[in-house]
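Recall the central idea of this unit: under ordinary conditions, the amino acid sequence of a chain determines the structure it adopts. In this exercise we apply that idea directly, starting from the sequence alone.
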Amino acid sequence: METTTIVRGRPILLAITVGVAIALFATAVSMMGVRTAQAEYTVPEALGGPTTKVVEAGPPRNGVALVPAGGVDLWLGPGREPYFTLHEGIALGFLHRDGDWLLVTTNCNDTAWVDSADTTVLPAGTGQEPGPAFDLSEAVVVLDPGHGDRDWGGVGPSGLAEKHVNLDIADRVRNLMEASRDIDWDTGAVTAGSAVPAFSSAVMTRDVIGPNDGDFEANLGYRATLATAANADAFVSIHNNTVPRFDTEIPGSEVFYSIGAEGSDRLAGIIYEELLLSFARFDADWQGGELLGARARIDPETDDDYYGLLRRATVPSVIVEGVYISEPDEEALLASGEFRQAYAEAVYRGVVRFLTTTDPGAESNRPEYFEYDAGTVSGNVCTVPAQP
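Accordingly, the structure predicted from this sequence is:
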């Protein structure tokens, strides 16, 4: 059956088959518990149900496809016809494949098919349990520079845009993860060495090699799907804060954790400790909120995570709010490469500790109800970048 619909103001021809639809139902359910042996799903009436199916676990059918130089064609279906050439430098999560064809999610959270031969495919994480036996050389991490494009995030007194700062810090974290390192756990110094191996992959939701040097919009659903498809061992969203309420003696850093994805609170507590270690050598009139450290916010209407990114998370996930870009002293720090590198090293050390130890990290604050508007830019007019 073929239907024509309007997606974000653009007419797109969608090819929908019963077989693909059923596969998507099975994939969506099985990805809710990647490490389980089997999963049940119900075929809806419109697709010939209701009947209950059991899907036995098989070879992983999910992962990440990187769009190479020259872009990649998006197709209506396996072997059908291309309708758009996607810009190079974008990572695409896929939760289903049909032979060599991958059903991917674009930055605007639309789905499309790509030929795997036209991309660089990164395998999903193996689902190792964190602890001393964890093999970092097989680690898969998704790094998410918050905001992008028309969503500037916070803006400092002198005009420094959070979206650019977040991207640079995340890129620095990625660079740290892509090579072996030595870590001085007392001082926090990260240097070239061999004690800590390079990660298998560190995937960026907004990459500096992508459209507009990485300054493009990425829908929250796309970001979370990328982490799920990668079966990431950790999903870290990099941000900086605005509008503090109090003077503080220490940096007002906050790390928000998913209440639904196991291990997220420990990841948040560990990263918070490493932020304080990295920032201790910098002087500023620090500002903060009522609570510091590892936090979670709950939507009082749903009792679920307030933040859409964490609500969609299926892997250990956090949103890091390093310092307050809205404050002159802290904006000045964020403008410096030295401070951004210290921020990046804190996140890197935090992920290494989370994966390779059983350290509990700083004690997490109890989840709190939050009734205010987070001010997220709507994704209804999101643009999928075309290859020039």
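Residues 136-369 form a domain with the Aminopeptidase fold (CATH 3.40.630.40).
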